[in-house]
Amino acid sequence: MTNQTVIATHPMVEARNIQKSFGTVEVLKGIDMVVDRGEVVCLIGPSGSGKSTFLRCINHLETINAGMMSVDGEPVGYEKRGNLLYELRESQAAARRAQIGMVFQHFNLFEHKTALKNVMEGPVVVRRMRRSRAKELAMAQLEKVGLAHKADAYPSELSGGQQQRVAIARALAMEPKLLLFDEPTSALDPELVGEVLETMRALAREGMTMVVVTHEMSFARDVADRVVFMDGGVVVESGPSRDVIGNPQNARTREFLGNVL
Amino acid sequence: MVRRRAYGRWFADAVLVLIVLGLIWTSATNPNFQWDVVFQYLTHQMILGGLVTTLQLTVLTMVIASVIGVVLALMIISDDPWLRGVAEAYKWLFRGTPLLVQLIFWFNISALYPKISLSIAGVGELFSFSGNSITPFMAALLGLSLHESAYMAEIVRGGVMAVGHGQGEAAKAMGMKPMQTFGRIVLPQALRVIVPATGNQVILMLKTTSLVSVIALPELLYSAQAIYSRTFEIIPLLIVASCWYLAVCSILGVGQYYLERRLGRGHKSKR
Ligand SMILES: Nc1ncnc2c1ncn2[C@@H]1O[C@H](COP(=O)(O)OP(=O)(O)O)[C@@H](O)[C@H]1O
Ligand SMILES: [Mg+2]
Question: Which of A98, A74, A95 is nearest to A86 (CA)?
Answer without folding.
Answer: A74
